[in-house]
Amino acid sequence: MSCLKQSNLRGFACEQSCLTRSDGSATFNQGETTVLAAVYGPVEVKLSKEHVEKAAVDVIYKPKVGIPGCKEKATEQLIKSTCETVLLVALHPRTAVVIVLQEMQNTGSLLSCCINACCQALMDAGINMRCLVCAVTTTVDQEGHIILDPTSKQEEDGKAVLTFAFDSKTNGVIMTTTSGIYSSQEYQECLLSAQHASAKIFEFYRDSILKKLSRVS
Amino acid sequence: MADVFKKVEPAEYYRRHLTHDARPDGRQLLAFRDVVVSVGTIGTADGSALVRLGGGGTTVVCGVKAELASPRPDTPARGYVVPNVELPALCAATLRPGPPTALAQTLSQAMADLIENSGCVDAGALCVSPGRLVWALHVDAVCLAHNGNLADACAAAVVAALRDTTLPAITIDDETGRVRVDSGRERAPVAASAFPVAASFAKFDNDILFADPTAEEEALATATVTVATLEDGSLCLLHKAGGSAMTEKELQQCVDRAQVRGAELRHLVNKVAASKEC
Amino acid sequence: MAGVEVVSEQGFRTDGRKPNELRRIRCKQGVFSHADGSAYIEQGNTKVLATVYGPHEIRGSRSKALHDRAYVNCQFSMATFSTGERKQRPRGDRKSTEMTMHMKQTFEATILTQLYPRSQIDIFVEVLQADGGNFAACVNAATLALIDAGIPLKDYVCACTVGFVDDVTIVDINHLEETNHIAEFTVAMLPKSEQFVMLEMSSRLHLDHLSKVMDMATKACKDVHLVLDRAVRDHVSEVWQQLGNT
Question: Which of B218, B216, B221, B145 is nearest to B3 (CA)?
Fold first, then answer.
């Protein structure tokens, strides 16, 4: 993997329980990109969304400016199905888990920041999960170099942006979405470097939980 | 008896078939359904295509309508494409009349991504007069029957319709600024050389991989992946929304199969387009 | 008269038809397997697809259930690319809502709804290409789809448009003729009993001409009936053979 250009992720920060009225909440920063996630659940579900055998997961994504459009709806669906995979939805039939995401600032890698914020908020809410999830965005620049956790500028200049979400147990790919044109070899390389980087994020998750718990005790 | 078994234990019904490496409809695991493509089916549209998977199991008709519009301020010399996927209530028994479903919105966005990423429309060629007038292509795909794998069917219909689309020549009178359609001159095609083809796969029981899932298989699947490939073997879309985790090997298997599939479908669409011309 | 002459001096229309000539009707039943009934019809350049679901239990709000008959739910929709100018909304605009209402009333009068109390029958029609006589084509397509679904009807519902211009009655008018401000009739009837189930007129017509126009409409609907009946019989015998019978 000679072509990995920027192998370190930008600095993360995370603050859990930043909202008082929600069951769980977290702000997640990756560099300057900041997303606030709030989780409510399991709560009562609207009849039309009710599932008899599992909890319905509802994701509401609020962009910083403007009203949510088709693109935001697609993002919601993506995050929704990612969260549905890691949550043990079968434990809470006929209920809903509502996740509200507010974009605070976007300087690149927004989608991965959203998913990471979601995971932190779900942990904070104490909802049973099968495993943890973390997401990493990568960019392939014009020369074919891979950049991890790109800034907006790098995303724009690159020829492709690829986002992956991994589970903490098997390190398999739960979610992947891409834009731009890239070769299948580049895809594999991005996947491997993102997978490698995901270990760091999981480590960070562990640290942040440890810190929180030591404060409580 | 088999019907009852299928109703009561759908997953087990599939597992029994899979022990023989076949699916209930007789296909191999990585086999796609037969595709029928016809182009230029809608006379009122500027370009159109109809795609049927598996003898009408999934049917999508796509029509392209070109309208003159003022360009977006950030791209004064480029036209734009507005894709939209519709799932009217007539296409499946489970759908009800009402506002667009989440699936329709996701598909619309996927089509927008596909067109933009692959560059299958030459947005520069849609410009009539920089900063003043450009073509806006409204690409509307209507699903007429839904039996799984709408992503592939929509993608094929959208791309085939765009490749069928031609625009009339436009002349602008410099003095009066009046726009006139020049019917004497030949209509110009809008499609660029890029020809993306999408292929979808479903994962069953967390480890078995299917190609081209039907609606039943989609309901049972633990994850679905869509891969869009281009002629030169590069990828322009790889979409997996949640579901059971996949290894990089499995993803590579999907990509490889999608490449083969892409070549087949490109050949088919080019053949249909050529037979229409002569 | 401004614009194009609808009927030429030689007695031919712009597309070469005689005044009492229908456009070519091509139709096919059972085009989709997922629906209980489906049909596709082409009347000249007007192309319509209809699907029928039901009778099934009431979906959505229970309050729609009728204790003595089935609830007929219709939806008329036109694809955005079906017309010359792009349509902004495929359904939900005033014209589509009106068409939906007319469809519903037409078929409530024809389906033997009292056989299925507390249930619902869905009729969805989609206009893929519009070239005049859209409503008539939709009714014909829906009739075929209902027959395909095996829903009992009083009779075929056959619909046709009739125009009256310069003392000449023309049947099955196309889009070009529609735009020439002629008196336009849309008629849906049960051909066996010669009963009208739907009748709509736009523009102005002297009462003296009415009987002449209605006679022409009746004749046209009976012609449509012949074509539809032929198609249904062909379809049934085809299915019969496929089932292994001779």
Answer: B216
